[in-house]
Amino acid sequence: MPISNTSRALVATATIALLAGCSGGSATSPISSVGSQSINHAQHAQSLTHAQILAKTLLVKPGVSALLSHGPIVVSPDADFSGVVFLSDAGTNEVYRITAKGKATSVGSGWSEPQGIGVDSKGNVYVADTANSRVVELSKTGKPVAILSDPGQYPAGVAIAADGTVGVTNIISTSGGEGSVSFYTAGSTSPECTSSGTLSEDYFIGVDSSDNFYFDGFDASTGAITLATAKPCGSVSATGASANIEFPGGVNVYESGRGKKAVQTLGWGDQSGLAVYQFSLPSYSPEATVSLGGGSDEVQYAIAKSKKFVASGDAGNADLEIWAWPAGGSSPSATVTGFSEPIGVGFTPSGDE
Predict the structure, then answer these.
(1) Are residues 243 and 340 in the same domain?
(2) How many CB atoms lie within 10 A of CB 182?
(3) Is the dihedral of CA 3, 147, 254, 352 positive or negative?
(4) 90 and 179 fall within a common domain
(5) Can you tell me the distance from the alpha carbon of 202 to that of 219, in angstroms, rounded to the nearest whole number?
(6) Half-sphere exposure of residue 183, counting CA atoms within 13 Å on the CB side?
(7) Taking a C-beta distance cutoff of 8 angstroms, is the pair 252, 206 a contact?
């Protein structure tokens, strides 16, 4: 159910509070380069009001707030993508299931700032319900399956390993402390452990076939945008990946080829630079860069199971945008409009419409 205009205004106010709290009382423009360190990404609870702590849990780049007025959800008439897209909207506190045939359904209930989305090998969808300190598992049809509690944390992103282990990035703790990653064994609804270190704020997360988790955020000491890695319940360390990331975006690992010829690629998204930087694993050697052009703020990106399409929630344009994969492009090939502050995105397999 859509929230009221008053609730939407509160979301926008909280976002403005973040900008004011990080810039000495005035709003900032989006970060233009990795070297810009004018924003302090390691503030703690004693220096933040409650509203500012809540604002710091939003994954969008500075300067982007919820669209206060929006229309009905409309899939562009030339939309052509496989599978079904799940999209979280932190502005209206809703999660949508969207088909290429133009059907959009609100699923689940009780959401509070839903953000990052992960999908397991069976097509089940995991949504970081940030302000509720939980992750909600949905079936591929959108029905609630389980709730993973994340006490004391604000969950931001979700990734599921082949063995069912769930990794959840926490942007900050509920007391305003540093970011971390909570790990859940397959089928568990309580975290086995929470690992921290290296990053002051943890954003999005992906996992490879060897159960190595990769996640991005801000370096705890310098504030630089960093990609880190950890095994479940292991120590956190920086990777060797380097790119001119302007603001943290989605993180994914995708595989091509089979057997001994299988190759894994790590994709690191830049929500402000509108691109996905690719690296070969395990060397972190740079590969091609895919442009997700034509938008404003590509927060999280996800690749369809067919590996023919890529989608992103664009918080700046308040829509869902889709391109061919791995071609990308200067503008999306399909859009879905009518949202407030879309953030998380995930595909379920083809044929589930």
Answers:
(1) yes
(2) 27
(3) negative
(4) yes
(5) 9
(6) 23
(7) yes
Provide the residue range defining the domain that includes 340. 74-348
Would you list the DSSP string of 29-58? PPP--TT---S-TT--GGGS-HHHHHHHT-
Residue 188, Cβ neighbours under 10 Å: how many?
Answer: 15
d(CA 133, CA 149): 7
Cα separations (Å) of 52 from 18, 22, 33, 47, 221? 5, 9, 24, 9, 21
Q: Are residues 52 and 81 in the same domain?
A: no
DSSP alpha helix (H) spans, 79-186: none
Q: Count Cβ neighbours within 10 Å for each residue of 217-249 and write b for 16 or more, e otherwise.
A: bbbbeebebbbbbbebeeebeebebebebbbbb
Reported as a single tens digit per residue, the pLDDT across 320-350 is 999 999 999 999 999 999 999 999 999 997 5
What CA–CA distance (Å, rounded) separates 295 from 335? 10
97-127 pLDDT, tens digit per residue, is 998 887 899 999 999 999 999 999 999 999 9
Could you tell me which residues are beta bridge partners of residue 342? 89
DSSP β-bridge partners for residue 104: 98
Query: pTM here?
Result: 0.85
Q: Are residues 143 and 43 both part of a single domain?
A: no
Q: Are residues 124 and 34 located together in one domain of the fold?
A: no
Query: What pLDDT band is residue 46 in, cutting at 50, 70 and 90?
Result: very low
- The reply to whether 101 and 24 lie within a common domain is no
Cβ-based burial of 323 (10 A; exposed 0-12, middle 13-18, buried ≥19):
buried
Do both 272 and 313 map to the same domain?
Answer: yes
**For the chain, what is the domain count?**
2
Element (H, E) at 12: helix 5-22
Residue partners of 149: CB distance under 8 A and separation at least 6: 133, 134, 189, 190, 191
Neighbour count for residue 44 (Cβ, 10 Å): 14
The answer as to whether 141 is a domain residue is yes
Name the burial class of residue 22, with classes exposed (0-12), middle (13-18) and buried (19+) by CB atoms within 10 angstroms of its CB.
buried
